[in-house]
Amino acid sequence: MTAPARRDAHEPTPSGPGAPGGGAPATPGGTVVLGTVPSDSHTWNLVLLQLLLEECGFEVVNLGPCVPEELLVEECLRHRPELVVISSINGHGYADGLRLAPRVRARPELAELSMIIGGKLGVGGEAADRERGSRALLEAGFDAVFFDAAAADLRRYLLSGERPGEAAAAPALEEEYARGELAGASSAS
Amino acid sequence: MTEAPLPAVGAVDFDAFVRRRASAGALVVQPRMGFMDPEAMRAGLAATRAADATTVGTLTLDSYTRLRDEAALATALAEGRPLNGYPLTTHPPEVTARMLAGLRGPDFPVQVRHGSAVPRHIFESMIGLGLSASEGGPISYCLPYGRTPLAQSVRNWADSTRLFATLRERGAQPHLESFGGCLLGQLCPPSLLVAVSVLEALFFHQHGVRSVSVSYAQQTNATQDREAVAALRRLCAELLPEPSWHVVIYAYMGLYPVTPRGAYRMLASAAELAVRSGAERLIVKTVAESMRIPTVEENVAALEFAAAAADTVRGWTGGEVAEVDADNEVYREAAALVDAVRDLHPDLGTALAEAFTKGYLDIPYCLHPDNQGRTRSYIDEEGRLRWADSGDLPFGRGGDGGGLAGRARTVTSAALHADLHHVRYAYDADEGPADDILAAVALPALPALPPGP
């Protein structure tokens, strides 16, 4: 399982194991705005994440599938969340995420907002692609990137604030979504 | 609309065809199939028709056509990028007419399957080509997908259904199938699937389409599934104004088994459900289902296997429909839902929108902004789907009613994850459901599948 990449404005190199992540995660107990990129119509991943975030002590505003960028910005301004979680499994998360983060960061009120992205973000499966993709998403404005990661990685990140370990990851349900098996996939009818 | 002469389609009556074949002892089987290229599409339909089974053809449309994204369609066609279905509204009508020529006819009806909450352009194309069978519905094609407001989907479907009904003036019998038996594909208690299917069939009638089919997607427990189909049949018999209807079963629509044996067990169980419950038609899934879009050959193998499995079960039952308590729990819940919705307003479209506002209809785990999201479901120890929380569903009227009202029960992320995988694990195990059918039916050569995760 891939450890998430993190952005830390005060460190020129990626944070080592156990190092505190810069700016993220938020302390459990606040509001999380949960959503996906505009092109992604999958929802079971968002349902599972909502339950997981609630179990971690957050109030969740779940924006559902195919979230337009303007809607995400509006909801962030309205709720002023502790954290924004973007989950995508249709393979467009990387490309859409690169456009999305600057849109949010462009609002001065949201420039410092904690914002993370994860799921099945690209169509390629190479480790080098994931590493390159993670770096680009961090540069675009995300605080942490969970490229092809599982729910357990996110739970550890949220609860510990430390770099997730490699062991005991939950099954990567995201891969199943990415194959378009669940309703919400366009070929269901 | 152009007044181009209607192709000679007057004799193709989808429902009449299916019921005639069913009463002669055959389960009608059907694939999901759509290709961008007219030649490939024609080859797929020809292979479906030639399969050793009683079949109807399918024209599944691509997702850009569903969303009416004409710019994306134009780009994809110009650049030769593949689409995930047949672009019915983009190919010139004469191209589609040639694609269908000599294939569709009184003994091989073809149904258009799309999935659009904005379907008018699709119905216009179908009418122009004399394609008289389709599927969908104002709820089932809206809430599970995207963000189209429900009230808008209701208006769109009312408008398109009325337009489609005009086919009758031109000698064809327009037919619509409700996709209400699927919703999110898994973890919806059967009573809500049954209620939405019946309500959408009534909606089609209200807007002039008199030949309908109602759907039910196989769920997690065979006994509960048979109760659900019995409930569906009883409600249709009680409520539909005309006898021109039939039931279509969808092989499981959730996370599918990943082993070939598991996939064949799943399909055999679906065929068994259809035969034992008296359903007339089955939409199959293939062994490739958990990996990718199936090929024509894989679809034909699935059609022939499903037909053979159905024949085997029919040999055991002698064609008798299994005894099911007509007043079962699924029926009581579904009847309560249907009655409460119909009482809201004489115009069913208005009633449907209001029912979602009030939470009388509320799909568990559906994130659409017009769904209240107060219901939760879970799989119990017997594998039956139950309400963990029935929210504001109108079950309370007249007391508890024996299992109608869901006691609130917390669903954790771990439990939901397990329930989402319940069917896959059961069918991929060393021993599984329908092994008796697999022992009696020759399995097609099992394809080499890519290694699992």
Give a description of the structure.
Chain A: This is Methylaspartate mutase. Chain A: It comes from Streptomyces sedi. Chain A: GO terms for molecular function: cobalamin binding; metal ion binding. Chain A: Residues 29-169 form the B12-binding domain. The complex is a heterodimer of chains A (189) and B (453). Chain A is α/β, with parallel strands linked by helices and 189 residues long. In chain A, 35% of the residues lie in helices and 14% in strands. Chain A has a 6-stranded mixed β-sheet with strand order 1-6-5-4-2-3, sandwiched between helices. The radius of gyration of chain A is 15 Å and the shape is globular. In chain A, 52% of the residues are buried. Chain B has one domain: Methylmalonyl-CoA mutase (TIM Barrel). Chain B is built from 15 helices and 10 strands. In chain B, the strands form 3 sheets. In chain B, strands 1-8-7-6-5-4 form a 6-stranded parallel β-sheet, sandwiched between helices. Chain B has a two-stranded parallel ribbon with strand order 2-3. In chain B, helix 9 (222-239) links the parallel strand 6 and strand 7 (245-250).
**Can you list the strand order of the major beta sheet of chain B?**
1-8-7-6-5-4
Kindly report the average pLDDT value of chain B. 91
Instruction: State the shape of chain A.
Output: globular
Spell out the helices and strands of chain A N to C: EEHEHEHEHEHH
What would you say the CATH architecture of chain B is? Alpha-Beta Barrel
Q: Which topology of chain B does CATH recognise? A: TIM Barrel
Secondary structure: helix percent of chain A: 25-40%
CATH level 1 name of chain B: Alpha Beta
Largest interface: A-B, 30 and 44 residues
> Which strand order spans the largest sheet of chain A, edge to edge or round the barrel?
1-6-5-4-2-3
- SSE order of chain B, one letter for each helix or strand: HEHEHHHEHEHEHEHEHEHHHEEHH
Task: Please estimate the helix content of chain B.
Answer: 40-55%
InterPro entries (chain A): Cobalamin-bd, Cobalamin-bd_sf
Pfam family, one (chain A): B12-binding
Region (Disordered) (chain A): 1-31
Biased composition (Basic and acidic residues) (chain A): 1-11
